Fold:
Amino acid sequence: MSFSLESIGIEHGARYEAIFTTMNRAGEVNAAPMGIKCINDYDIAARIFEGSKTLENIRQTKMFVVNITDNPQIYADALYGNMDNLDFVMDDDITFLKNADAYFICLVKSIEDVEAERDHVNDGAKSYIILAENIKITINKKGARALNRGLFSFLESLIDYNRLDVVDDAKRDEYKNRFLENERVIQRVAEKDVKESMDILRQKMTEKGLDI
Ligand SMILES: Cc1cc2nc3c(=O)[nH]c(=O)nc-3n(C[C@H](O)[C@H](O)[C@H](O)COP(=O)(O)O)c2cc1C
Structure:
């Protein structure tokens, strides 16, 4: 048993994808993919849009569980609403996924109303910032690590860099747009080393004549 988020590869300031499991007051379970931001070794923040069951359950119980997995189908099934009660383990007032690589229990410290802000996809939608303290981490699979999208975005751009010399102008434009989008994602979510590697890649891309 561990308490530090570092033990599952979670770094201060970076954002990770996970599955939140929650229960309502009636004991009905729910799972949904959600992002978290690491504030420090013990505290995390999540931004959750109004209308989600997860948000309503968190309001009711002031607790939730963050499940760590790299299984793509678990993310998909949670999003499609395809989870079965058998996929969950119930433990008193919490619930977690039977097949999670790791999970941690969070106690809510505050739920803050976010001013409707410019969002690149969900402009003006109402959302809340949940600040929570992780009170216990359980690791089921050795080496379990939370998923950070930054690394995948970096690798996509690195592959484009490798192909830059052999593609036509239309493809170069496509690569430029993809680089800018990957860079946006990385600025928002990535770990420090990925941000540094992306800065170097930007320079390398311009050396190959990409106008970014
Ligand atoms: C990888 C991934 C990450 C997501 N992160 C968030 C998030 O941070 N906040 C949010 O409100 N919705 C997020 N979503 C969307 C919710 O999972 C989606 O709206 C879901 O239907 C909410 O389910 P619920 O009503 O059971 O809570 C994410 C979806 C995916 C696929």
